[in-house]
Amino acid sequence: xxxxxxxxxxxxxxxxxxxxxxxxxxxxxxxxxxxxxxxxxxxxxxxxxxxxxxxxxxxxxxxxxxxxxxxxxxxxxxxxxxxxxxxxxxxxxxxxxxxxxxxxxxxxxxxxxxxxxxxxxxxxxxxxxxxxxxxxxxxxxxxxxxxxxxxxxxxxxxxxxxxxxxxxxxxxxxxxxxxxxxxxxxxxxxxxxxxxxxxxxxxxxxxxxxxxxxxxxxxxxxxxxxxxxxxxxxxxxxxxxxxxxxxxxxxxxxxxxxxxxxxxxxxxxxxxxxxxxxxxxxxxxxxxxxxxxxxxxxxxxxxxxxxxxxxxxxxxxxxxxxxxxxxxxxxxxxxxxxxxxxxxxxxxxxxxxxxxxxxxxxxxxxxxxxxxxxxxxxxxxxxxxxxxxxxxxxxxxxxxxxxxxxxxxxxxxxxxxxxxxxxxxxxxxxxxxxxxxxxxxxxxxxxxxxxxxxxxxxxxxxxxxxxxxxxxxxxxxxx
Length: 479
Prior knowledge:
Layout: E1 10-14, H1 17-20, E2 38-41, E3 44-47, H2 67-81, E4 85-89, H3 92-95, H4 106-121, E5 125-131, H5 137-143, H6 150-165, E6 172-176, H7 205-229, E7 234-240, E8 243-246, H8 251-274, H9 279-287, H10 298-304, E9 309-313, E10 317-320, E11 328-329, E12 336-337, H11 353-367, E13 371-375, H12 392-410, E14 415-418, E15 441-443, E16 455-457, H13 459-469
Parallel strand pairs: 1-4, 1-14, 4-5, 5-6, 6-7, 7-9, 8-10, 9-13, 13-14
Antiparallel strand pairs: 2-3, 11-12, 15-16
Helix pairs in contact: 2-4, 6-7, 7-10, 11-12
């Protein structure tokens, strides 16, 4: 078989600052939304959302994987793995501790200077997410987060600082992580409305959509700003692709799946790639009695700030249908009906490599711009035996998804990067724990903070090194 992956393909791996860095109150960093999400009380781990950091709660994210202190070792391991790219994020509150200051925190800026220098040493291209769910807590507490339009200016000042400081060091930028999560109840967390739980009756679609519009405007302005500061910048959106198949061939199920795809996935893509709200969104807002407050100039702002590439996360698929008696199962950001033709992980996420090919074709032939797959992986409970982690299940998952990326490229889809989740074990967003592991590199730490933080490359680490070395031609898993 001829190699379908281009020679400059950005093989990589991904993490986020709020889940991997730790050092939450070091180097002048202020608290972020992520610092109050998950923790353990009296030895019981659960989602423990409050409006401030509590003294009697242990928060795994406060230490994370200790990348803040061990980034040189971690990047050396990435170099050993042969990574061509590293999809990471910058902690806003490390640069602006409260988010609304005019003067940045120099120690925080220097930390990322150091990270980029280490990446350059190993020839690893950074793909930087500007905001990955972790806005400064002060902005949530004092402004109500993204439901307040003033967030746009705070964000743009942050972007201006990053684009100027790291000019020539970072080429690829992503404005917001999984921006479409604001279309589901979980999104209230990323909206920064921290006075409410995502299950609260105050978590309204109206609030989340207003926050989403402000993020659209902020993203479009950031794209224009980034291009103005450095014409070499490539700036993309990032969508959590929530793929739901129709449960049956009943026309009602087919239409329900189409509408679900339009609202959850295509609405955000259309605004950020095409530069305007699609007609189906206008109708949806009207039928649901939703009113998005916009300024007259927002229309032109969205048109003039369209993105250069489309980034996405893809983990699984579910089903959707009119028969509510069907069994439901878990997934990334959403729940859906079980697909009887798919196996699932121990956490209930259905495994569907062929679905990735469907999604890539669906996205590319709608937008015709380059695609990055910046999250794709399998969360499991890994076991260390004789100092090794034999994660053949993860290799099988990644292997089959990479095969379908190759098929998609043969279909004519322009995929330019693949950065599976995650480079090393980190705090799971869905559970706020270390137990659910995604990493190619094991981190010795449990949900309660016990462990040495020692790094151990898993079997998948060495397998992925071989994949990268062969540019995707050798996917075999041979001992």
